[in-house]
Amino acid sequence: MSGKFLTGDGRRAAARADDSSAAPRATRDRNEQRHMSQRALRAWAIVHRWTSLVCTVFMLLLCLTGLPLVFGHELDILTGDAIEAPALPASQADARASYEDVLRAALKAHPGHVPQYMIWEPDEPLLPIVVTAARTDTPPDDTLSTTVDARTAQPLGMPPGKGSLKFVLLKLHVDMFAGLFGKLFPGAMGVVFLVAIVSGIVVYLPFWRKVGLGRVRLKKKRRIVWLDWHNAIGMLTLAWALLVGATGSINTLADLMLEAWRNDQLAQMVAPYRGQPPVTVRASIDDAVKTARDVAPGMIPSFVAFPGTRFASPHHYAVWMRGDGILTTRIMRPVLVDASTGALTDSRELPWYLKVLLGSQPLHFGDFGGMPLKIFWAAFDMLTIVVLGSGLYLWLTRHNPRKGRRAA
User: Fold this and answer.
1) pLDDT tens, residue by residue, 238-247
2) Exposure of 36 by Cβ count < 10 A (0-12 exposed, 13-18 middle, 19+ buried)?
3) Is 236 left (phi over 0), alpha (psi -120 to 50) or beta?
């Protein structure tokens, strides 16, 4: 019957009937939404559980080896491997030997070697490090380094070698003594770690809304207390863990990025030299550095790559210039100098991916703010170890349904 023929009481009765039929539908919709939300939460919990399990052991290794490396210089002092600039009379304090004299001093200490790099650490400008090897293409692990006094061109010794504690820790942290695969695998674990963090946030949100951020229920069972501490410390270290995890994964791609730069930008800059014979008589390194300073005023040398090494070409010095401030020290620009004449060949800004790599390194290592930042980095490293360890404990002490049924 059409609604226009209903009386007032009939229309009210029909409205009540409509309302009564709508109420179950709304309840069903709410129940379905709640059920879907619970299913999504369970899915996120599964993602968090398994991504955490996959990466925990490797992340613990990286945190444990990275902790002493935060204090790398202090570790050298503790183990007796530190090399300090000797005190000189006031008349010699401002003296500077030529770069060629520094190079000759290092080569004299290792007869038969050829130079690969001359490096100036930002916090030790008076102590350049000269890397030498039997060949220009010798792998880094088979080279020798000599620290030379920049004022007197006197060799002061060799930085920690393969047998040192610092070398072992660094190799475990960087590539686990497994070469390129050993670098890429921890990078993949870093990505899994980031997924574990994000999924952990999603799983924690309902508890956050219900109980409060960072609350630890100390009167509950021990496992609940461990879980609350795991969540609370995890939220405290959230930003740091995301930052270090992301920048660490980027750093593992350094070799691939360098190879991409060599095949792209470097190949373009040295194209006119293709097919020419290798350099036999090279120009002075002092001339090369002077040319680079003229090209990049306001910047200072970070390192010089000699002809034939990975950071240069067979026909060029590559003088890598860097910014002269705390915030610009990782901004670098390579200047290619003809190794025969000392004249400029080319200089270009680095591609975006190398800029990202260079910018990620200080954020990962925390080595740009002195001792206060080192202490901050170390503290959050230790807190992350607690988060990883507590997560592993919660997994190992998880409830076993079979054991529960047997006990019942």
Assistant:
1) 999 999 999 9
2) exposed
3) alpha
